[in-house]
Specification:
The structure is a single chain. The chain is α/β, with parallel strands linked by helices. The chain folds into two domains: about 10-180, 3-Layer(aba) Sandwich (Aspartate Aminotransferase, domain 2), CATH 3.40.640.10; about 185-270, Aspartate Aminotransferase, domain 1 (Alpha-Beta Complex). About 35% of the residues lie in helices and about 15% in strands. It contains nine helices and nine strands. The protein has helices at about 15-25, 40-45, 85-90, 115-120, 155-165, 175-180, 185-205, 230-240, 260-265, and strands spanning about 10, 30-35, 50-55, 75, 95-100, 110-115, 130, 220-225, 265-270. The strands form three sheets. Strands 1-7-6-5-4 form a five-stranded mixed sheet, sandwiched between helices. The protein has a two-stranded parallel sheet with strand order 2-3. Helix 2 (about 40-45) links the parallel strand 2 (about 30-35) and strand 3. The two termini are about 30 Å apart.
Length: about 270
């Protein structure tokens, strides 16, 4: 793998603040970011006065363009099924930054990568791990843990999202750190892989997405691209009837964008239940 052995591991209070930390540490003034991405990372770049060059992706999640060789590029390991694309990009672009919010267990690539604890371990409500090959020249404080119940309904999940949006960039709280260290990572990995493999047997033949995982990959969900928006809506309704909550990723885009098909046709089936 394309992994710098001199990576620093930094525990921060959120994935979006990992991105802020990266921009500040490298002094990034301009970066390539995909249109198809959580808007919170765009807001971080704007807040840090970092110019964004947006790029499109293909239906296999690969970038639909090439980049200047030394450009800073943010690439998300979409739904944890894009490690092979990450490997290819890391060979070509020396300033690759990998958003592993959907791929906690992924090998580290590029000059920096970061994940999200709450995306993989539902009982942990914040916190993230940042791998970076440069020391920061600034200081930050430790975060203070805000109690959040272990089980949340949809409204409470949205409330927690708004709380995280407002977090200043700080190190992870002691309570969140302990929750993470008490987690059986191997057990969580095995459970996710087992559910993913079962879903793959059910849906693979009709899935319009074609992805090949590495043996060590542990996805965030099972991404199913239906043949039509109608088929996607039917599957979502079926899953909801089985008390499985489905989220749309991310904001709706203009129909002229290929990525608009993801919002309409992509069903992200959770594998943490």
């Amino acid at each position: 793998m394309y992994y710098n052995l001199h990576m620093e591991l930094v525990y921060l209070n959120s994935a979006r603040n990992c991105f802020r930390y990266i921009i500040k540490t490298f002094g990034i003034k301009e970066i390539y970011i995909p249109y198809y991405l959580c808007s919170c990372l765009r807001h971080i770049a704007f807040a840090e006065e970092c110019k964004i060059n947006f790029y499109h992706i293909n239906l296999d999640f690969s970038p639909a363009c090439t980049f200047p060789e030394n450009a800073y590029i943010l690439y998300p390991n979409y739904f944890g099924v894009c490690s092979k694309i990450v490997e290819k990009l890391a060979k070509i672009y020396p300033n690759l930054i990998v958003d592993n919010a959907h791929s906690f267990y992924a090998e580290q690539s590029g000059i920096a990568s970061f994940n999200s604890l709450r995306k993989f371990f539902p009982y942990i409500r914040d916190g993230a791990l940042l791998y970076i090959n440069k020391k920061a020249s600034f200081d930050i404080d430790n975060d203070e843990y805000t109690y959040v119940p272990k089980t949340l309904n949809y409204d409470e999940i949205c409330q927690n999202e708004r709380r995280i949006d407002k977090l200043d960039m700080k190190f992870i709280s002691e309570t969140t750190y302990k929750l993470f260290k008490d987690t059986d990572l191997d057990l969580e990995k095995a459970k996710r892989k087992s559910v993913f493999q079962n879903l793959e047997k059910i849906y693979n033949d009709t899935n319009c997405l074609d992805f090949t995982l590495n043996d060590e990959d542990v996805p965030f969900c099972y991404p199913y691209l239906a043949k039509s928006e109608e088929d996607a809506d039917k599957l979502v309704e079926k899953l909801k009837n089985n008390e499985i909550t489905i989220y749309r990723y991310w904001d709706r885009m203009p129909d002229s964008y290929l990525e608009s098909q993801f919002y309409k046709r992509l069903v992200t089936i959770p594998i943490n239940h």
